[in-house]
Amino acid sequence: MVRSMSRRELMLLGITASFGAIAGRVTSAQPALSQNQTGESLKALTFDIFGTVVDWRGSIIREGELLSETYSFSVNWGEFADQWRGGYGPLISKVRTGELPWTNIDDIHRMRLDELIREFGLTGLSEIEKENFNKAWHRLTPWPDAVGGLSRLKEKFIISTLSNGNISLLTNMAKNAGLPWDVVLSAELAKRYKPDPEAYLTAVDLLGLEPEQVMMVATHPSDLRAAARVGLRTAYVIRPLERGPNPSVDTNVAGEFDYTASDFFDLAVQLGV
Fold first, then answer.
1. Cis-peptide into 247, omega within 30 deg
2. pTM of this structure
3. Could you tell me if 45 and 115 lie in one domain?
4. Strand 44-47 to 183-186 pairing
5. Which CATH number fits the domain that encloses residue 88?
6. Do 123 and 256 sit in the same domain of this protein?
7. CA neighbours within 13 Å on the CB side: how many for 78?
8. CA 147 – CA 45 distance, rounded (Å)
């Protein structure tokens, strides 16, 4: 059964479609790889998740608004979401440098959430409510093209997560959102966070493939650059609304990656699916 899109999904598709022309210009500016160079050797696609597959910002805003309905909080939930996500990088860096022992993403999110609860004055939340709010990251909504685009790509390739998110988070998210992964892989398996090389190479090894047989798909150029340094193919997917309603696209990456696409359907077309 085909699910009807919500008004919000249609709006997002309309806005994102306006960036298709940008993707086309970026793609046309880069040298096309022949089928022998990429298509024949490519066996698996590994995907960044937060921002690339799911709309983390819109989802956190929605969860916060539900709390406001219960507690009458007066909170700018967009700012809250940005600060919650913004605390992720520094804490990851502390784990990567050894300042913190190995800490999974659920615990990292909770460390930052506890700080934000104090900073934003979210008084009255029980421990159960705090933990449920922290698990909002397990319930993130996919971009409108994600499920259909992934299903199409799956017809030809192994498709897998390759996220800093922990296995339980990624599994729950997939179950909740209907994401059709063949396998759920995480930096947690290597106990090394992206962009450390071990995070990418462990995934490649677990898939039983060589780096050049795997393509990293992400909306974050830094993630793709790290993957390319250890020999993976790369696909840059434009997600102009990841950071909110003021679209911004990094057009300076023209020619840097193997593919540039406006969404997963566009990527599937380029890969001959």
1. no
2. 0.85
3. no
4. unpaired
5. 1.10.150.240
6. no
7. 6
8. 15
Q: What amino acid occupies position 85?
A: R
119: which residues sit within 8 A by CB, 6+ positions away?
83
- My answer on whether 43 and 162 are in the same domain is yes
d(CA 184, CA 49): 11
Calpha distance 14→1 (Å, rounded): 23
Cα three-residue angle 230-236-240, rounded to 5 degrees:
140
Q: How many residues does the chain have?
A: 273
**Per-residue pLDDT tens digits for 190-219:** 999 999 999 999 999 999 999 999 999 999
Q: SS3 for 215? A: strand
Q: 262 and 182 in one domain?
A: yes
Q: How many domains does the chain have?
A: 2
Residue among 131, 126, 116, 123 nearest 81 (CA): 116
Residue 126 has pLDDT above 90, yes or no: yes
Tens-digit pLDDT profile for residues 36-52: 455 569 999 999 999 99
Supply 273's token pair: 């699916």
Is the pLDDT at 35 greater than 90? The verdict is no
Q: Tell me the CATH number at 211.
A: 3.40.50.1000
Residue 179 lies in domain: 34-53+143-270
Considering the domain boundaries, does residue 265 fall inside one? yes
